[in-house]
User: Fold these one by one.
Assistant:
Number 1:
Amino acid sequence: MPRSAPNALNKLLEGNRRFVDGTRVHDEFREDHRNLTSPQDPVAAVLTCADARVPPLELFDLTIGDLFEVRNAGHLARGPSVGSLEFAVIHLGVRLVLVLAHDDCGAVKAAQAVKAGEAEPQTPAIGCIMESIVPLLEGPGDTDPSLAAETLALAQLERIREVSDPIRRAEETGDVWLLAALVEHHGGHVRLLTLPPRDPSPRTP
Ligand SMILES: [Zn+2]
């Protein structure tokens, strides 16, 4: 299958469908998984939360070498994270960059508590995470963690476009798709939050 953004998205969504249906094909450790010497050839780059309940390889029914994962609490597009995504696009030829939010995000809920004056960041480093999330919590996102997670993901898309010339240019030419999605914890369904640019009526994910 040729490398392209549409093919990459199809591979991820088909894998997530298998995950949801309980028909994963990568659900067993195989001997070839021990071989890590082959060059990586990821189908996509995923910026997602560090939350242990959001393992991208499993959610998309992929295996070692298939996915370039960039993770931090709150899936924030900040310096090293954006640089990592640029590495995936420029050096690994990744054509799909997916910002993957999730339900029940602890970073989002902590930021909501900070914004409400109910809590303080426990350390300066945690404070840096809160400073990136709190300003985005407006309206329903003040109290609804899922809506806030969606808002946060969409804001990260814009942030990537703002700070990364190579990714923005690749998106403008259509070589790279930059999309956002959300994992529903109940069932593990990945729901697209933005539509692919060249397909105005994609199938329901
Ligand atoms: Zn989270």
Number 2:
Amino acid sequence: MERRRRMTLPHLPPDAALFLDFDGCLVEIAPRPDAVVVTQALRDRLAALTRRQGGAVALISGRDVADLRGHLGGFEGIIAGSHGSELSLSPGRIELLHGAAFDVAALHAAAHDRAGPHPGLLVEEKPHGVALHYRDAPDLRGYVEAVMDDLARAHPHLMLQPAKMALELRPAGVGKDSAMAHLMGLPPFAGRMPVFAGDDTTDEPAMAEVQSRGGFAIKIGDGPTAAAHRLPDPAALAAWLDAHLT
Ligand SMILES: [Mg+2]
């Protein structure tokens, strides 16, 4: 089944706009977000794709831009980070795509207070929210849900976003889909057919967005999806991308 789907994956036209999620898509999910492995092959692949697509390549990630640029060392392309809250068109430049200002340090502190007694939990501080990871303590899922529900009630301008073995609070009203729509209004993306690959529930609105614009979406891994195409893992996506570079 997977093999047949892989074989029917469309060609990536050089004049398409390419949007790529990071974790679970370009790289394997790591036990901790900071333990992710970025190879030189991946850096080279992204640079070559950006050249091939005339600059119309963007990473769209739940990670914040600074974190992602740190992991990708030397990547000069476009990044939409923090689930579409931040946009970086070039290194050293970050613009915010949402306007709600609030005391994010207090939110981080509250999350640390609640996670502190449980060594298996990991608080990930985001520029405009917070994520609580329970990958190392899956039995604490119910506790994490209760904590994040409490924090969500205290911050009505934030929304709860489930992710893989994590729950996140992020600004309401923005997402990977809205960041993609913003980029599709800018050169060199405007007028192109969008293509998007992602792996998580957070990617589904963007899957629908590209398909509503006449493009195609690729789901990486298992799970329900709106995407018309599927690949089993990041290695398969890398192989499909590389097939356009030879
Ligand atoms: Mg992902």
